Amino acid sequence: MSRVIFSEKNGKLVVSGVEDLHTKDGIVTVEDLVKGGKVKSTLDQDFYVTEASFHDKLIKIKRGPAIMIAKDIGQIIAHTGLSKEWSVLDAGAGCGVLACTLSRVVKSVVSYEQREDHLKIALKNAEILDCEVDFKLKDIYSGIDEKDLDLITLDLTEPWRVFDSANGALKKGGYLVCYIPTVSQIQNIVENVDDSKFFVEKTLEVLEREWHTDGLKVRPKNRMIAHTGFLVFLRKI
């Protein structure tokens, strides 16, 4: 059993198992965790309990390399228009979050990772998130095994080194999406694109600002998620 518990003071918690939840605002009994809905702790504080979603379970994953977060992953899903019939290759698996998220939308995801320690983290997180991803210990700079792919995502230092092999692996019209943190990497991508094989469709940076809503107190929160990385969308010609 995985449940997500919300409270104004404690924020969001994800719990597994069948035991009482002890917090500074009192105890939420296992009976209330199973029942769900709006419940009271032993100190008469409000808690909201429901089944944990995929996004909720991200709180529980094992961390290692930096992960791509929802605001950037959402842009890949929205701007490529990927579907349940698509075959996807992800490279630079890291913690496995992008590959696992995409696996919930598409037919199949293969994910390459050249570091064994990172691959172990990704495999463990796939278990936590209950995802089906074919993780491989492989350096994508040495080539791509798969063919007829609809989408390739690259979270790599030098994604332009993959352009030739990506051209051979993608279907015509397929997407190659590069996630990079610096402007100089964007420049290198553009300089290394062979316009007989790919064209740059768009380059995005996504900023996320959450708002505080409490009665008449409606205002932006003091902190926002600003720059995490750039997304460069290329299409195979």
The CATH architecture of the largest domain would be 3-Layer(aba) Sandwich
In terms of per-residue confidence, which ranges show pLDDT below 50 for 5 or more consecutive residues?
A: none
The CATH topology annotation of the largest domain reads as Rossmann fold
Please state roughly what percent of the residues sit in beta strands, choosing from under 5%, 5-15%, 15-25%, 25-35%, 35-45% or over 45%: 35-45%
How far is the N terminus from the C terminus?
47 Å
Number of helices: 7
Which strand order spans the largest sheet, edge to edge or round the barrel? 9-8-7-10-11-15-12
In short:
By secondary structure, the chain is an alpha/beta fold.
Annotation keywords:
alpha/beta, 2 domains, 35% strand, 237 residues, seven-stranded mixed β-sheet, Rossmann fold
Write up this protein.
- There is one protein chain.
- With 237 residues, the protein is an alpha/beta fold.
- The chain has 2 domains: 2-52, Vcp-like ATPase, Chain A, domain 2; 61-236, Vaccinia Virus protein VP39 (Rossmann fold, 3-Layer(aba) Sandwich).
- Helix content is 25%, strand content 35%.
- It contains 7 helices and 15 strands.
- The chain has helices at residues 30-35, 54-57, 70-80, 97-103, 116-129, 163-169, 183-192; strands at residues 2-7, 11-16, 21-23, 26-28, 37-40, 46-51, 87-91, 108-113, 134-137, 149-154, 170-180, 198-205, 211-214, 217-220, 230-236.
- It has a 7-stranded mixed sheet with strand order 9-8-7-10-11-15-12.
- Strand 10, helix 6 and strand 11 (170-180) form a beta-alpha-beta unit.
- The protein is elongated and about 65 Å long.
- The model has no long low-confidence stretch (mean pLDDT 95).
